[in-house]
DNA sequence: CATGAATGAGTATTCATTCAT
DNA sequence: GATGAATGAATACTCATTCAT
């Protein structure tokens, strides 16, 4: 019944604090170049303490990835199921939402780091494919099919269309994480505007009745 | 007149052999996780021999990247300058050619590894942006503008269109290098067919007078 | 109030233990020929532990030199300032004291090793010149001048006299450290007796009124 | 009967050229810090060629030391045996000659390097003691005794006197080689003048009838 | 539980030495 | 003989992990 002591509160928050620290540092410097002591320090604990929560650097990495995946997919799927109206609008809206919530923030770094470390963590790569990539494609693919079914979209092949919807965002994400400091092509346009324009371009090719330009 | 000795022949080939070994291993395992001795072994020489040709692992990495870049860009630019006819055809053809020559083979790994290691080699990242990314964008962007100018394309904004043309290929490349072993979505379609379909989709949105489907 | 744990006690003693081990080994085998692991082993710790205390072999060397210098100079200077009486006696006494405290023990090895490694550590060489050699010469030179001023010594040139006072001791020191095992000339006379005799000889040339032999 | 070809002449000179290169580099940088390739380069030959003349770096070092020792001792001994006149003059003259021929030039570096590397080359240390140190002491000691016998010197103990005659020169030699770049005390006096003054001081204590100052 | 001192396996790099040409 | 390409033993240093306090 007694309220949790500050110490207890602290302790309960530890795993998440470590995960957050790991996320930030792994994204910034990569897995190999991040020392476990740095992560502990950033989380405000001593080196040894980290190992009370995660038995190894590898396990911490896996936990960090799992913690940052599949956050928004179920959410988006539910949203999509309920939605009624033009699919094109929903797609555009979902892209913007994903960029705002995932792509832009640190969590987007997980996409990059998964790509980088996939070879080292095959188990995690499979997990990522099964839990993130495949569901995401299924979600988008389902929407494309709904669009075709309701006559909104032309009868395009689904898989390439899904790729065309996903690729630009992921590419922007990776590019910013890798060359953001060196390629200042985005001075003229914000990432959001760029996404919008890309979406418009794609939808123009997708819609059965393109808007008059 | 004297024929080069086998030893000499061997010596002349060494740098390229080391570069090839480095490419394969860096792509497969990442920079940090690749031991310099492994590279030497794969090139069929002893540890110390590597250092006769490249003074450090870092320099070897840089040489490897430089060796695999700027090979196809000038080539494509020349081809584009001479071309007369529908831009759409040229674009489609260039994409296929790039995929066949770069994306598919080991050289494509350089794109992945640059993305992965850019943070560790800022100097190299800048080089890559200046020598590869910027020229590539300029080339594609120029073609898009020619297409618009000759009335073939709708008056779309150039930059997002360039992204839409580049992203799918790069995304496929990275995806295959990272999750190829785990994501078997490509069983049904070959990468080439996928690219074709993506291109068709995009061009449909791009062309002033889309073909009747 | 809490007693320091054995571990803590150990930790506090480590730096000195490492310094002592380094002194012994560097003197015995030279800087380059001493492996850092040997030093650690001699101090009773593992390789890695050494690097917790000194960031590199170079820094360990520097710390070791600093730890063994400037200990006796200030002491001797104070002693000299207070002294009243025949300078000759003071000089003789100081020589004997220096030999007993520095020349004979391990600390004397620092003189040898500084001589040996000065080329490799120019910064340290300057430190040694400024902190040890120059003050020592100043101290001895001051005493010679006092001796001349009070009519005890002939009006000899100061600098050569200082050299004549210092050289024999240093020469003995270096000789013992280098050839002690091979040159058994000292069987007949102890180092102390030899020093005494050398001193007597020099003073005989120095004193305005030599003792009748 | 045919005159030796230039190539032959070159070959005959090789060992000495290698020895000279080794001397210069070992003195300048120390044994461990001198790479055998540097020595070869300085002698104008390739790395492998060095090993045709000396089977190892160690052997080259030993040969270099032997080549530079015992050059002037026999000579001086002969000179001393013939000499008639005041011993003090002979001693002063021998010191100056030794400094000019050995101490000053590169050959003097051998004294330093012997001191440095004695522990690593015990066999060489013994050789040095037997061939250089002991004969030198014997030569000087004999002169001191002659001086005493002919009433020129006071009846001083021989061994300490020998030390007092040798130490200043050796000390100057070592000091210059180690701290020459950092200790500019010799600005006011040349080494030769310093030696002269030291000698005068010592002789004043040595002579039965000191000159009136 | 938390800590951080201690550990030692693992790696990049150097350089004396060999030997095919 | 002379060369210099190739070798691999040797070593400084790092950092994930352990465990006594």
TrEMBL record, chains A, B, C, D:
The keyword Transcription regulation applies. It holds the Pfam family TetR_N. Residues 35-54 bind DNA. Keywords: DNA-binding, Transcription, Transcription regulation. It comes from the Bacteria. Residues 12-72 form the HTH tetR-type domain. SUPFAM superfamilies: Homeodomain-like, Tetracyclin repressor-like, C-terminal domain. This is TetR/AcrR family transcriptional regulator. It comes from Pelomonas baiyunensis.
